[in-house]
Amino acid sequence: DAGITQSPRHKVTETGTPVTLRCHQTENHRYMYWYRQDPGHGLRLIHYSYGVKDTDKGEVSDGYSVSRSKTEDFLLTLESATSSQTSVYFCAISDRPTGLSEAFFGQGTRLTVV
Amino acid sequence: KQEVTQIPAALSVPEGENLVLNCSFTDSAIYNLQWFRQDPGKGLTSLLLIQSSQREQTSGRLNASLDKSSGRSTLYIAASQPGDSATYLCAVWGGSEKLVFGKGTKLTVNP
Lengths: 114, 111
What we know:
Number of helices of chain A: 0
Structural class of chain A: mainly beta
Largest sheet of chain B: 6 strands, mixed
Oligomer: heterodimer
Mean pLDDT of chain A: 94
Helix content of chain A: under 10%
């Protein structure tokens, strides 16, 4: 299994509070991604990174920000959590751009916003 | 815009049966197609990656085929076992570093 660790694995938070999810990889892969998985929508890309300090938006980026200060860590921040951000969040990594390489996923973080 | 469809949404078979899961995509301009397995409450496990220049890939009892021109891929599982019960997802490149996923086929293999 690819060395990807997501933390926390579960979190319950209140509406309006900031939340940060962490993805840590030991594979030294350049590309890292955050997806969310919701019933009826499948998995959707939030943000991605193509290198340290290089990030870009995905299709559902509103309300989220990311940072990557080291190759191994990719942080996803919900600045002010809303109930619509209740979801399961997955981090993924690959060593080449998405279309050219296999993607490996972490175990997910289940976030509940109450 | 790339869209991925998986049919059927759910499938229940007796143990030992050979089965086929289907995946179709609307834009044939893909670089690769990837099949994943997801167990309840777990992450995604990569099963097979088929490059656009390939027509099939095999891993153990799994065989995935790709027909870019028709926008279709199939995942063939031979001699199914209860441990194969999971949701199977296919995904293709959707541009801008995005994997576009189907909604999955939930497979149940009954002992």
